[in-house]
């Protein structure tokens, strides 16, 4: 699994090429203790690490690639059960169309560790920015589209510099993310820059950061009025090709809420920013120059066995005349050559097919991502419309009651303003507003009994988008409305009837609820144990309960978060939410 990726480019000059090779040579010989930086073939060092090199040259393009395979030390955490130990670093330099490309990937060891709940899980070992990347950026002026690699957050001191920032945000050729932030009140720009640098020190080569002064923030937000604005104390991550004139586009650029930056330790912030960016870079479509070069490297690697066979047939031909059966042997060698040529053609055709299929796969991934974003945008638009309808219904109901009692129609409109809803922007904020098992939050009739860290972890997955938070909030509003109507004797059936019926007039904005689990999950065993969550002892004397009912928040690969709950109103007067987090194990994940 990828643990680091950077893709940058510079002007293709002999001087730039030599500077890069010089830095790589110094890193491999001085830091990694290899005897040399190979051009072709493999060298080893005293620790047993291997450094392999290959190159290609075709019309208009050439490239060099090194693969470093080495063993990394165990990070030493007590919770680590095992580690694969092996890390692979790929360093690629491409010269094409007047540009010099640097492409670095690191696949670190995979760790098996025990989490806070005693469950084993796998994650890749943390890798910082490789030392040679920092040295290369200091030696060669490299860029990602219009942006220069981040060695620290840059301060935008005044409104006159906002144009340049906007041009970077709108650049569709950029691959890395841009982080735009502004200090909270009573914090200086310099202090906030220092804090932002500390939170992103391992991001060099991955993205770019800017801190807006008060003047620059006012100017930027005046131009980003359709959802792209940055609040004081918050940070927005802009992916390539931002369109500040489109409200729908704003959903693509995640906001880290001021409360998250305020209440979350810097270590977790670093993890959120870094993991989200690496996941983005892992899945994006690389520039054509790199895809074509990657094919040439693959082709050369796959064709190496044929080169060896050609050498063998050439040697045999040279000595064939010395044998008594020279004629028959020559014919046999010629037949082998013909078969070899046919095999080469078939291999090349197969590689062409692989390249075509990879291209089709990449296009399918892009289309699926567009469909996902469109679905998310549609949900957010629907949510906003639903909120307006709910507000109007609340005003109307209150107006009817007031008119019937005192005839004061004006009270209905003031009530509507009191119900102006502020919705959470992050899962961390959502939890702040959700009551726990022993106390009420801002949502009457709903309490959370689960592990808060499981929910907060969802903020680390930028691919979920704001719609995931919206869906969970809508579910909680529905549970709250159900409990309220039960308490007011306006509804006397179960939560499942409330959700499925809809004729009761209460809040209802969710679907996709699965009310039971399959037999293999429900039967005693590890799957069932994962779905047993705390409840009040009035619900069950053991203080725990198996909760099969759940809401599918998203099907994002690798996360697929779920919300598990139980209708406990009859026992305690509220709905218990036992879990909000990544997909639990089942027969398909084990």
Concise summary:
The protein has 17 helices and 21 strands.
Distance between the termini: 18 Å
How many β-strand runs?
Answer: 21
Q: How is the biggest beta sheet arranged?
A: 6 strands, antiparallel
> For the CA atoms, what is the radius of gyration?
30 Å
Which strands sit side by side, in order, in the main sheet? 1-7-6-4-3-2
Beta-strand content estimate: 15-25%
Helix content: 40-55%
Summarize model confidence as the mean pLDDT.
80
**Tally of individual helices:** 17
Shape: globular
Structural class: alpha+beta
Question: Looking at the chains present, what oligomeric state does this protein adopt?
Answer: single chain
* Low-confidence sequence ranges: 306-310, 409-420
């Amino acid at each position: 699994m990828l643990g680091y990726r950077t893709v940058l480019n510079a002007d293709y000059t002999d001087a730039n090429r030599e500077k890069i090779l010089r830095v790589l040579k110094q890193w491999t010989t001085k830091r990694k203790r290899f005897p040399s930086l190979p051009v072709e073939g493999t060298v080893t060092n005293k620790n047993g690490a291997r450094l392999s090199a290959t190159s290609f040259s075709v019309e208009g393009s050439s490239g060099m690639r090194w693969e470093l395979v080495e063993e990394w030390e165990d990070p030493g955490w007590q919770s680590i059960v095992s580690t694969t130990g092996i890390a692979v670093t790929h360093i690629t330099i491409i010269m094409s169309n007047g540009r010099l490309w640097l492409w670095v990937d690191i696949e670190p060891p995979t760790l098996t560790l025990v989490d806070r709940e005693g469950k084993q899980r796998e994650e890749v070992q943390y890798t910082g920015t490789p030392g040679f990347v920092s040295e290369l950026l200091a030696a060669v002026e490299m860029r990602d589209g219009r942006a220069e690699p981040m060695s620290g957050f840059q301060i935008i001191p005044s409104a006159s510099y906002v144009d340049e920032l906007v041009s970077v945000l709108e650049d569709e050729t950029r691959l890395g993310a841009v982080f735009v932030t502004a200090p909270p009140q009573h914090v200086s720009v310099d202090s906030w820059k220092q804090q932002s640098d500390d939170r992103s020190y391992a991001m060099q080569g991955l993205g770019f950061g800017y801190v807006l002064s008060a003047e620059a923030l006012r100017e930027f937000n005046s131009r980003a009025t359709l959802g792209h604005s940055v609040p004081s104390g918050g940070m927005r991550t802009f992916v390539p090709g931002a369109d500040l004139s489109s409200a729908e586009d704003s959903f693509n650029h995640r906001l880290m809420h001021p409360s998250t930056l305020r209440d979350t330790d810097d270590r977790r912030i670093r993890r959120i920013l870094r993991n989200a960016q690496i996941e983005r870079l892992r899945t994006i479509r690389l520039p054509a120059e790199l895809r074509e070069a990657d094919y040439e490297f693959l082709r050369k690697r796959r064709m190496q066995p044929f080169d060896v066979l050609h050498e063998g047939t050439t040697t045999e031909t040279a000595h064939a005349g010395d044998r008594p059966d020279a004629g028959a042997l020559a014919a046999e060698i010629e037949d082998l050559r013909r078969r070899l040529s046919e095999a080469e053609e078939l291999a090349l055709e197969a590689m062409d097919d692989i390249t075509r299929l990879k291209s089709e796969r990449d296009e399918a991934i892009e289309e699926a991502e567009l469909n996902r974003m469109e679905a998310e945008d549609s949900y957010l638009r629907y949510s906003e419309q639903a909120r307006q309808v709910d507000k109007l219904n609340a005003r109307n109901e209150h107006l009817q009651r007031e008119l019937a009692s005192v005839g004061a129609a004006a009270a209905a409109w003031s009530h509507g303003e009191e119900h102006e809803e502020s919705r959470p922007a992050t899962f961390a904020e959502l939890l702040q507003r959700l009551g726990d098992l022993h106390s009420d939050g801002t949502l009457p009739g709903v309490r959370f009994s689960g592990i808060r860290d499981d929910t907060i972890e969802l903020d680390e997955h930028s691919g979920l988008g704001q719609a995931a938070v919206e869906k969970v909030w809508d579910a909680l509003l529905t549970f709250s409305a159900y409990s309220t109507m039960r308490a007011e004797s306006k509804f006397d059936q179960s939560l499942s009837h409330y959700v499925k019926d809809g004729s009761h007039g209460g809040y209802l904005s969710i679907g996709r609820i699965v009310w039971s689990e399959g037999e293999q999950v429900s039967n005693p065993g590890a799957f069932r144990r994962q779905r047993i969550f705390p409840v009040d002892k009035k619900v069950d004397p053991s203080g725990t309960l198996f909760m099969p009912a759940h809401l599918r928040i998203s099907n994002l690969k690798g996360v697929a978060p779920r919300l598990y709950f139980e209708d406990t109103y009859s026992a305690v007067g509220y709905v218990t939410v036992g879990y909000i987090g990544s997909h639990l194990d089942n027969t398909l994940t084990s």
